[in-house]
Amino acid sequence: MTRKTRRWAVGITGASGAVYGVRLVEELLRAGCEVGLVVSDAGWRVLKEELGWDATRRQETLRSAFGEAVESGQLRLYPSGDIGANIASGSYRMEGMIIVPCSMGTLSAVAHGSSDNLMTRAADVMMKEGRRLLLVPRETPLHAIHLENMLKLSRMGVSIVPAMPAFYYGPRTMEDLVDFLVGKLLDLMGFEHDLFRRWGDDGRG
Fold first, then answer.
1. Spatial separation of the C-alpha atoms in residues 127 and 7, rounded to whole Å
2. pLDDT confidence band for 205 (50 / 70 / 90)
3. CATH superfamily of 7-189
4. Per-domain residue ranges for the chain?
5. Rounded distance, CA 101 to CA 84, Å?
6. Which helix (H) or strand (E) element contains residue 37?
7. What is the spatial distance between Cα 64 and Cα 58, in angstroms, rounded to a whole number?
8. Distance (Å, rounded) from C-alpha 97 to C-alpha 132?
9. Which of helix, strand or coil describes residue 135?
10. Tell me, what's the pLDDT at 198?
11. What's the pTM value of the predicted model, to 2 decimals?
12. Which one, of 35, 39, 40, 41, lies nearest residue 9 by Cα?
């Protein structure tokens, strides 16, 4: 990895809100970041249900969605069962990983060190190597086990970023709400963006 190249892993699970993961990947690619993408089987089902993606032709579907980034290798799809992939190794240089949206099942597996697939293994590697790990849970209401798992991970340095919209900036469309959350994630990941109006930019606050 060259000094100027940024490299992140992105996981998409079976929680509702697949559009968040897709939109984030779009912005990371636009920023010139190399992206390693892992989508669980349940994640592919949600992509089909919520965005109409063809889960039976995964590579072709990615080419349709992300175009040249797939052909050039800037975006690489990893099978969820490939625990020997480079993103599952601590010696592979990455800035971090984000799972968006993150199901409570995946969050629980990460919290308890259960790394029996590539997504949870890569997340485990981020923690052991002291790299950034962000989880974006999308569930409501939350019961005590959900909250305890999130607290456990937060105490270990994992960023827990619930998919919660804001309204102070006057969103008018669903895309505005999606971009707000994606912008918050990019802030935490250290990427510049202009996806939403920040509080105080118009003289208020």
1. 16
2. very low
3. Flavin prenyltransferase-like (3.40.50.1950)
4. 7-189
5. 23
6. strand 34-39
7. 10
8. 6
9. strand
10. 85
11. 0.94
12. 35
